[in-house]
Design brief:
This protein is an all-alpha fold. It is built from 16 helices and three strands. It has a three-stranded mixed β-sheet, with no helix packed on it. The longest helix has 52 residues.
Length: 419
C-alpha cells in the first residue's frame, strides 16, 4: 500500500512539475515572440506607409527581390519552403533553424516596401515557429516538447499581429494535421497567445476589427443564399491554392536560377500594377477589405488578388498568404452580396472566413476568427458557411506539409498531404 501511495505521489508530482514547466516556458515564448512580433508589426506599418507615400518604389521591386535572394544565399539557407517548413518540423522532425526568423522578417519587409502582394500573418507563423523551436533547443527540450514550443511560437505570433488570441491558440494545433488536434499543447498555446496579445496591446499594436451594421434574420431562404456563397467560396479557395502551387512550380521549371526568377517575377508585378492603374492589389490589401465591409467592390478584385499574390510568392518574395486570403474572400463575398442584393457587408464577412477555412482546412479556428473579428450576432451564417466550405474544399490547402489524417467524407484514416 505504501508503495502504491508512493507511486501515485511521484506520478502526481511529476505532472505538477510538468504543468509548472509549461506555464513558465509558454510565458517566456509569449513575451519573446510578442516583442518580436510587435517589432515586425511596426516595421510593416512603416514600410507600407513609405510605399503609399512614394508609389514610385514599386519600380524597385525587382531589385528588392534580388536583395532577398542574396540574403538567403549568403546565409547558406536553401530549404526555403515557407510555412510548410514549420509544419514539417512539427510532424516529421524537419530542421527549423533560427536563421528562418530574421530572413523571413527582413524578406517580408522588403517585399512590402516595394509593393509585392503578400500577407504578414503567414510570415509571423514562420518567425514564431522558428523562435519557439530555438528556445526549445536552448533549454534542451526533447523533440516532442520542441514541437509544442513551435506551436506556442506560432500561436504567439499570430495573436500579436492579428489580435485574435482565441483563434491563434487553436490554429497552431489544428493546422498541422487535419482531423487530429494536439490537445497536449492547449494550455501552452493559450498562455503564449494571451501573453503575446498582452505584449502587443501594451505597445499599442492596433488590430483590425470590423462591424456588420445590420444582420438579416436567419431563415430558410437566407440560409440557402448563404449556402450558395459557401459553395462558391470553397471553389474560390481551391482556385487560390492551385494558383499558388502551380505558379511556383512553373516559375522554377522555366526559370531555375533564383536570382533571375525573382527578377522576372518582380518585373511582371510592376507591369501588372501599371496595367491596373493603382496599387490596390499590392501589399496586404487591408484597406480594400474595409471598403468591402462598407459594401463597395470591383467585380474583378478577387481574381486580380489571386494573380498578384501567386506571382509574388511563386517568384520567391516573402510574406504570408492569410491576409490575401481574407482579401479574396471579402471581395468575392461582397460581389456575391451585391449581385444577389443580400447584405454585401454580411457576405463580405462570411466570404472572408469561408475562404480562409477552405485554404487552411481549419474550421474551428475559422469560426473563432469570425467571432473575434465580427462578433457573435451572425453566428448561424458563419457556422453554416464554414462547415460547407471545409467539406467542399476537398483536400486542397495552402500548405503542402499539412496532413489530412481523417477523411472529410467518411470515418476513415487516410493520412495524405494536401494538394
Amino acid at each position: 500500500m505504501n508503495e502504491y501511495l508512493k507511486h501515485k505521489l511521484t506520478h502526481n508530482l511529476n505532472r505538477l512539475i510538468s504543468s509548472i514547466k509549461w506555464i513558465v516556458f509558454s510565458i517566456i515564448v509569449g513575451l519573446v515572440v510578442g516583442g518580436i512580433a510587435t517589432l515586425f508589426y511596426y516595421g510593416m506599418h512603416l514600410v507600407t506607409l513609405t510605399r503609399t507615400t512614394y508609389p514610385w518604389l514599386i519600380y524597385l521591386l525587382p531589385l528588392g527581390g534580388l536583395f532577398i535572394v542574396f540574403c538567403y544565399h549568403i546565409s547558406n539557407y536553401k530549404n526555403d519552403e515557407g510555412t510548410n517548413l514549420v509544419l514539417a518540423a512539427i510532424h516529421s522532425n524537419e530542421p527549423l533553424p533560427f536563421k528562418v526568423a530574421p530572413l523571413v522578417f527582413i524578406g517580408t519587409l522588403v517585399t512590402h516596401l516595394f509593393g509585392g502582394s503578400a500577407g504578414r500573418e503567414g510570415a509571423a507563423l514562420q518567425i514564431g515557429g522558428s523562435i519557439g523551436n530555438t528556445l526549445g533547443r536552448f533549454f534542451r527540450f526533447d523533440d516532442k516538447d520542441k514541437h509544442i514550443m513551435i506551436m506556442c511560437g506560432m500561436s504567439a505570433a499570430f495573436s500579436a499581429l492579428f489580435g485574435t488570441p482565441m483563434a491563434a491558440a487553436i490554429f497552431s494545433m489544428e493546422v498541422v494535421s487535419v482531423g487530429v488536434m494536439y490537445y497536449v499543447a492547449l494550455v501552452p498555446c493559450v498562455i503564449s497567445s494571451l501573453v503575446s496579445h498582452g505584449v502587443a496591446n501594451y505597445f499599442h499594436v492596433t488590430n483590425e476589427m470590423f462591424h456588420i451594421d445590420s444582420i438579416p434574420h436567419f431563415n430558410i431562404s437566407n440560409g440557402l443564399l448563404i449556402s450558395i456563397l459557401a459553395i462558391l467560396c470553397a471553389f474560390v479557395s481551391i482556385i487560390f491554392c492551385i494558383a499558388l502551387h502551380e505558379t511556383g512550380k512553373y516559375y522554377k521549371k522555366w526559370i531555375p536560377n533564383a536570382y533571375l526568377r525573382i527578377l522576372v517575377g518582380g518585373c511582371i508585378i510592376v507591369v501588372l500594377t501599371l496595367m491596373v492603374g493603382d496599387q490596390t492589389y499590392n501589399g496586404t490589401g487591408v484597406n480594400f477589405i474595409e471598403q468591402c465591409i462598407d459594401g463597395s467592390v470591383r467585380p474583378e478584385a478577387f481574381l486580380l488578388k489571386i494573380v498578384f499574390t501567386a506571382l509574388t510568392l511563386g517568384a520567391g518574395y516573402k510574406g504570408g498568404e492569410i491576409v490575401p486570403t481574407f482579401f479574396i474572400g471579402a471581395s468575392f463575398g461582397c460581389l456575391f452580396g451585391t449581385i444577389c442584393g443580400f447584405s454585401p457587408t454580411l457576405c463580405t464577412a462570411v466570404g472572408m472566413t469561408a475562404v480562409f477555412c477552405g485554404v487552411t482546412n481549419c474550421p474551428i479556428s475559422s469560426l473563432l476568427i469570425s467571432f473575434e473579428l465580427f462578433g457573435y450576432d451572425a453566428m448561424p451564417y458563419f457556422l453554416l458557411t464554414i462547415a460547407l466550405s471545409y467539406m467542399l474544399s476537398g483536400y486542397f490547402g495552402l500548405y503542402k506539409s499539412q496532413k489530412i489524417i481523417y477523411s472529410k467524407y467518411k470515418t476513415s484514416y487516410i493520412n495524405k498531404s494536401t494538394h
